[in-house]
UniProtKB/TrEMBL annotation:
Keyword Protease (UniProt): no
PANTHER family: OXIDOREDUCTASES, TRANS-1,2-DIHYDROBENZENE-1,2-DIOL DEHYDROGENASE
Protein name: Inositol 2-dehydrogenase/D-chiro-inositol 3-dehydrogenase
Keywords: Oxidoreductase
Entry similarity comment: Belongs to the Gfo/Idh/MocA family.
Every Gfo/Idh/MocA-like oxidoreductase N-terminal domain range: 8-125
InterPro entries named in the record: Gfo/Idh/MocA-like_OxRdtase_N, Gfo/Idh/MocA_domain, GFO_IDH_MocA-like_dom, NAD(P)-bd_dom_sf
GO molecular function: oxidoreductase activity
Native organism: Paenibacillus plantiphilus
Pfam families on file: GFO_IDH_MocA, GFO_IDH_MocA_C3
Keyword Nuclease assigned: no
Taxonomic lineage from the root: Bacteria, Bacillati, Bacillota, Bacilli, Bacillales
Amino acid sequence: MFVLTRELRFGVMGCAGIAVNSVIPGIHQSRTGKVAAIASRDIGKAQETAAKLDIARAYGSYEELIEDDDIDAIYIPLPNHLHMEWSIRAMEAGKHVLCEKPIALNAEEAQRMADTSRSTGVHLAEAFMYRHHPRYSRIKEIISSGEIGELRGIHGVFTFNNAADTTNVRYRKEWGGGSLYDVGCYPISAARMILGTEPEAATVQALISPEHDHVDMMAAGILEFPGNVALTFDCGMWAAFRNSLEVLGTEGRIEVPSAFLIKDARILIHSEAGTREEPQEMLNQYALQADEFARAVWGEKCSQFGPSDAVANMKAIDACLESAYTKQRVLVRQ
């Protein structure tokens, strides 16, 4: 039986939907974490959210939150253009930071955040919750076993339709809006994680919408990896919902029907022998993320996905965005 000997006390910066509906409940369900405070620039909203989610303290400014000595770590679900500023301010105040994806607007911002993490000695992680589910370790085991042969490619998709909500922060270009930032980052990070290497070049075609402040509402592309392996992907905020990943080999393929938002935990392995289904436990990915974060903070294990991983992911996204807007193949900065 697991016995809690200590807990990581989180402060949440903002009342975004991802925080209220997923991350805060996940931290509450984790073995290691507790949400002790929440802040909003609207104190009434902070108090309402705190009461709803059983959070002890509510603040009317982000500054008050990072000055709270009873907070160990800050979770940041603010609009993308605020990630760097408030992550750095929190880290400089001695707080560990779990920042929503994408960690920043570009690799330069992400590097500044990584440098601050190093200089202050606090932990910084990007909140890709799906990576913490054990099915991805199992996928890598299957690949390593040779069951599907040599890898030939990865295909990932993540789309949804929210285009009618034209006031959404996802549709503010200067705030880091667009589908590559919002959902394209998932298959990009997954391919990097599975392959264990960094992409070399990107070619992306995008639907740029004047109705949505000229952000990419849909994007489809290819990321070239070493060894003549590629990720093909599409992402969008103006299309029917999809959320899947496929790993293709010379002798078979692995299908992940619910790759990022977990509604179906199965892994399907297709080969010449037929199709084998491996059920996986329906675990709360947000709780797993909180536990991994806490253990990295406490030095109990090395983080699988530290600041350098976040910088590398932003380099890939930078190249995809440049390709989408210039309609050219773009090399990924190494």
